[in-house]
Structures are given as structure tokens and as C-alpha cells.
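Entry 14. Structure prediction run on the chain below.
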Amino acid sequence: MATTRRALLGALAATLFLGAVAPAVAGQRLLGTSQTGEPVAETLQTGWRLVYFGYTFCPDVCPLGLQTMSEALDALGPVADRVTPIFVTVDPERDTPQVMANYVTFFHPRLVGLSPSQDELKQMAAAWRVKYARVEVGEGRPYLMDHTATIFLVDPNGEIAGRLSHNLPADRMAEKIRTVLESRS
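Output returned:
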């Protein structure tokens, strides 16, 4: 009885921390090429994951989100070994696997960078309910990308277990991740 009550309270706390979570959409998979030049490994479709959609030329939001993810993973200590951090570009035109390889190493040694094709990106955006759009900023200036700035916590079954703000302090993000992992162990 106490174990059931504890599990129920843990699930309730996770819901309160992370907000209501929509069920996973059929086909909600990671697609593309990793920063090593290999197709997405099947191992990225399982286990706990932190998934963030952004782009390497982002002037502010993406670096903040990736830095927060990295600091949260460090704050989790050994628990972080259960979570794979993944950065998916919404700008595959510029973010080749080589560009992603150089970029992700600035943030965390375990961060996986994915470069989908335009078609793969469209499929993922629909499945993950991620928005992105190219924004021209003026003649002679590089374009920007508007995009969803949510970090998804994904469980081993491929369901979104939480949505985390990119600008959440790292210690709070780690606390929320830990709460969900403990409530589902």
C-alpha cells in the first residue's frame, strides 16, 4: 500500500513539475545522420533521452538551451548516464554532420548531433509537434530560424515524459529530470 501511494505521489509530483504531457504520436522517432556521418542508430530510439530541436547558427536561444541541458546532466551525477542528450537541427541546409560534430563538442561530451534531410525534418516536426521557419533578416545577412525552444524528456518507450523550458535553471531541470526518472523506476 505504501509503495503504491509513493508511486502515485511521485507521478503526481512529476505531472505538477512538468505540466500536462500529451501522449506520444505514432512515428515519433529520430531521423537523420549523426555527427559521425552515420544514420541514426537504433540505440537513439530507446532509453531515456533529452531532445532539443534548434540550429548551430542560433545567436542565443540554442546555446542557452544546450548549456542548460549540459549543466543539468552534470548536476544529475551518475543518474545522467541513463539519459542521452540529443540536438536535432532545424537548419539541415547549413548544419551538416561535420558542422554538428564541431558544435556539440562545445556543450557536452555525450551530446549527439543529428542532421536530418528536409523531408526527415518535416516528418519529425509533425510527429514531435515542433515548429520551425526560416526568417530572412535582410540583404547580405544570414537568415535565422524561428523554432520551438522546448527540451523534451523522452522515456524508454518513446513517450514524452516532460517538456522543459530551454531557460530553466540547470539545477531545477536536473531536479525535474530526477523526479521523473525516480517516479518511473
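Residues 1-27 have pLDDT under 50 and may be disordered.
Filed with the rest of this week's runs.
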